[in-house]
Amino acid sequence: MKKLLLVSGVLTLLICSVSVLAALKAKADLQDAKGAPVGTAVFTEKSKGLEIDLKVSGLTPGLHGFHIHNVGRCEAPDFASAGPHFNPEGKQHGWDNPQGHHLGDLQNLSVGPDGKAHVHVLIPGVTLGEGPNSLFHEGGTALVIHAKPDDGKTDPSGNSGARIACGVINH
Q1: What value does the mean pLDDT take over residues 59-67?
Q2: pTM
Q3: Coil, strand, or helix at residue 159?
Q4: DSSP letters along 147-164, please?
């Protein structure tokens, strides 16, 4: 009987651990303004922040700004429904801004001549769990790719141009 209780307890702990780990992942399926799929981003909580594994295709070659936006909606054709950048700390835009950058600011995405890109990005300070820096605040968040490169300093969006792809970040 004791062995049965011990095994049952260990299994319960394992199941709880697996569900906690599963809760620390999220995904966004990105679409262009015509509704065609252009990529997928997988978000994984790590000890040093949130990791994004982004794979895209069908984009114009070159640099593109991409950011986490503050609203979990992607209504084509302009994706304005995704709102401004994710900025729970009330900072200015851009990695080169002396006043700090939004948590939704990401480095430029480099798309190859074949229209494809695959990047891993770590965002310190962002979580999929509870709290003010969670991507799952009320209203949700979205990942947006812009037409032009982000200049790294101009508030509020780095002069990165039109929003050309968007994906709601979901559990």
Answers
A1: 97
A2: 0.85
A3: coil
A4: SS---SSSTTTTT--SEE
